[in-house]
């Protein structure tokens, strides 16, 4: 009898503490990613396709990672890309950049260099002239992290 | 003071899609780093970039701490008329930097 009660107490302690300790920190920033995306997209449906994200799958230095986003669009007055939004999953902050363009661009393509604090998923979203949203995600492995290192 | 590198083709045919590349020197301090003493280094980044072609805005970017130091941006536009491309970077602590380039369209 006493042993089963002890076992029962051990179980409740384990069940009560482990989820709080392990699950929350892992989910914190991906949830921020979802919120950041919803802030841009609203209730609209996110479709996959049309948009392409070129980023190295393995980077040695997260301080400067080249990235190119391009969207398959004729870029005419009737059918063009309004904006491109790039997000990350595990930096201290989920936004990377918002880029606003229009039919005059001729080609829907933007390149920049970004920082990645950890190995993570990078998400790019394009907003077209008909207000449809298209997304693509890429996984990047980072060996040297950026953003939070100590200043010398 | 900040300096910028601009790459715009000096000549283009009317209707050509041209690539514009810009690079400006800026620390892009994220605001998430700490000194050895444990103090947070305040954020100092460029938050906005705008490109105008003969006075009309053709490209705008909102930048976040996840943009690498010395922000590089490359984008495209259709060469319409000869004239001037103006670039403006705006950031924390009243940072403003401008640059311009000329293009001849035939």
What features would you describe in this structure?
The complex is a heterodimer of chains A (152) and B (106). Chain A contains one helix and nine strands; from the N terminus they run αβββββββββ. By secondary structure, chain A is α+β, with helices and mostly antiparallel strands. In chain B, strands 2-8-7-4-5 form a five-stranded mixed β-sheet, with no helix packed on it. Chain B has a three-stranded antiparallel β-sheet with strand order 1-3-6, with no helix packed on it. In chain B, strand 4 and strand 5 form a beta hairpin. Chain B has strands spanning 4-7, 11-12, 17-24, 46-53, 56-63, 72-78, 83-91, 96-105. Chain A binds chain B through residues 63-65, 68, 88, 91-93, 95-102, 104-116, 146-152, and chain B through 17-18, 30, 32-36, 41, 53, 58-69, 71-78, 80. Strand 6 (95-100) of chain A pairs antiparallel with strand 5 (56-63) of chain B, so a sheet runs across the interface.
The H/E string of chain B reads: EEEEEEEE
- Overall 3D form of chain B: elongated
Q: What is the CATH architecture descriptor of chain B?
A: Sandwich
C-alpha Rg of chain B, in Å? Answer: 16 Å
Number of helices of chain B: 0
The gross shape of chain A turns out to be globular
Describe the SSE topology.
The complex is a heterodimer of chains A (about 150) and B (about 110).
Chain A: H1 2-41, E1 46-48, E2 51-54, E3 58-61, E4 65-71, E5 81-88, E6 95-100, E7 109-114, E8 120-128, E9 133-144
Parallel strand pairs in A: 1-9, 3-9
Antiparallel strand pairs in A: 2-4, 4-7, 5-6, 5-8, 8-9
Chain B: E1 4-7, E2 11-12, E3 17-24, E4 46-53, E5 56-63, E6 72-78, E7 83-91, E8 96-105
Parallel strand pairs in B: 2-8
Antiparallel strand pairs in B: 1-3, 3-6, 4-5, 4-7, 7-8
């Amino acid at each position: 009898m006493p042993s089963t009660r002890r076992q029962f107490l051990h179980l409740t302690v384990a069940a009560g503490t482990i989820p709080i300790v392990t699950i929350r920190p892992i989910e914190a920033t991906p949830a921020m990613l979802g919120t950041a995306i919803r802030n841009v997209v609203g209730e609209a449906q996110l479709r996959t396709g049309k948009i392409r994200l070129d980023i190295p799958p393995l980077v040695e230095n997260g301080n400067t990672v080249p990235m190119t986003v391009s969207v398959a669009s004729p870029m005419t007055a009737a059918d063009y890309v309004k904006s491109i939004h790039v997000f990350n999953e595990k930096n201290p902050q989920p936004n990377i950049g918002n880029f606003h363009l229009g039919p005059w661009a001729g080609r829907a393509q933007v390149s920049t260099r970004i920082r990645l604090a950890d190995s993570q998923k990078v998400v790019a979203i394009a907003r077209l002239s008909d207000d449809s949203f298209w997304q693509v995600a890429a996984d990047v492995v980072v060996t040297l992290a950026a953003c939070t290192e100590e200043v010398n | 003071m900040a300096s910028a590198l601009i790459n715009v083709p000096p000549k283009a045919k009317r209707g050509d899609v041209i690539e514009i590349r810009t690079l400006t020197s800026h620390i892009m301090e994220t605001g998430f780093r700490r000194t050895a003493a444990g103090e947070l280094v305040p954020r100092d980044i460029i938050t906005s970039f705008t490109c105008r072609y003969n006075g009309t805005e053709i490209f705008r970017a909102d930048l976040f701490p996840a943009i690498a130091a010395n922000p590089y941006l490359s984008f495209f536009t259709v060469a319409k008329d000869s004239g001037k491309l103006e670039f403006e970077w705006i950031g924390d602590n009243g940072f403003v930097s401008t640059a311009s380039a000329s293009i001849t369209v035939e």
